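Hi L., both proteins are below.
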Amino acid sequence: MPGQRWTILAVLFAVRAATGFQFQSVGSAASMLMQDLAMDYSQIGMLLGAYLLPGVIVAFPAGVLGQRFRDKTLGLAGLLLMAVSGVMLGASGDFTMALVARLIGGVGATIVALVATKMTTDWFDSREIVLAMSILQVSWPFGAMLALPIQAYIAQLWGWPAVMISGALCAGAALCAFAFVSEPSEQKQRTVVDRSMLPGGVLVPVLVAGTVFGAMNLACVLFFSYAPVLMVAQGSSSTAAASLTSLAIWFTILAIPSGGYLVHRSGRPIAAIVVCSLIAASALALFVAEVHPTISCMVFGVFVGPLSGAILSLPSKVLAPRDRAVGFGVFYTCFYALMAVGPLAAGYLQDIWGSSAALIAGAALLVAAPLLSLAFEFLSKPYRHAELNHDAELRAAVRAGARPVPLTPSAPARSHRAP
């Protein structure tokens, strides 16, 4: 049903937005945390990073669990961990407890991101997947932006513990909504297969796609973090630098769904990645060279936006339905690894080579994205119709002794007769 999948996408959007809302809670209450719990800026930074760091370790095991448990079960578990994290953070009396609570929330958010992406692929595969992925991708910044005014108001009225509880309540509301989502009919049953890794020929393209996604996001983080620093060094006021960077962020957020729609209409995500990455890299290079910095910022924001949905749609080209959970586990492991190591490496380059080094590194990452995307195109060609061959694989697995089992206790297992 066309309407059903868009309704489910709306729920998945809300679920992903809850992770952005909770992530922002520490930033919204940073000054109060520093005053009441005697934290310094480095500890606040650790709390911020602790929400993303678990993804490096958790993403792949969560994908493996996705082969054994329903997507809904994993998603509910992730949202429950987020809710527990918010309550623990609100009750924290010192930095150590706050850090543990934040790590628990990060584990839950990683599971939620993986499940939401996998379910979007299941519902929109061979349909409007680029557009759907673009809409899903914008949910995280939407949640973070929504949190800024709401959490600031809550902090003024009831203090920082209430801000953390608001993150728990948001996760709880998302959990209630997520409890009503369903899976596509073709996903109701799957074959038990004793493997926790993708076939080699599929693994490599998924690793490449995850690296492209991580490189694109890292380039955005470097731009939004270091563009104001460079503008101030070039003589701009801190207010003007922050305003211009903020405007570029808004352009990016608007370009994610609108660009995703255009990429969907074109039907050529690889070509879109190549063109948009090279234009965004050129804009970033011109910005560093002080060539019309305002226009360069706007061009960067417009052309980096369509990349999200296009890149997120790549794994669906090679992953059969039964491999999607572990496949997206691999995909997100690459993403989180780059997001964990990349800012540290960029900061090191900034210390050695000066105020523009991190932005040059961001431009280099965007130049690498087309090359990696073309490599994905070449490596994935023999496996493009993996999902079409799923029924044949299922029958072969049955002949080998594997047993189809229902995903839900109420769904009776159907026998699959081999020809």
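That was the first. Here is the second:
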Amino acid sequence: MHFHRIVREGFLGARTSLDIMTADFKAMLVPDAAGSRRARSILEVMRRLAGQGVEIRLLHAGTPSSAALRELKRELPAGLTIRRCPRLHAKAVVIDCQRMYLGSANLTGAGLGAKADGRRNFELGIWTESPALIDGVLEQFNALWEGHRCKTCKRKDVCPVPLEEPDLA
């Protein structure tokens, strides 16, 4: 259910913006259509959305998977901005500031349920259109994105460059 709601209805339905918080980010495969054998990586999906004018902000905790990093090094999609905060553990996807997933699933195939039943994580989350809840999450997202929490962070030893953007060279 997570995969269908977050990726199919959420990502693919984005028109203006996509704000993503995830601790872990992998090059998850997204089938072209239900039952289709052809699949694209989530980064290809983001590239297409960005090409349609969707602004995408991805805030994650660590280094993307090797497959995602290879794809990002090949071509960083215009309209996709990535920042890293090693302390981030929150998971949320906000679509067009109007719809949101908030829960435990990372932006991975196992987290969102894109893998076979025996290889999925057991996750919980909510899908909402509540303006109050979405505004609260976006307030937290923006505070992290803009570095407002960096000044008082006690983990500078693992984050020497606050909110660094990936070195894709």
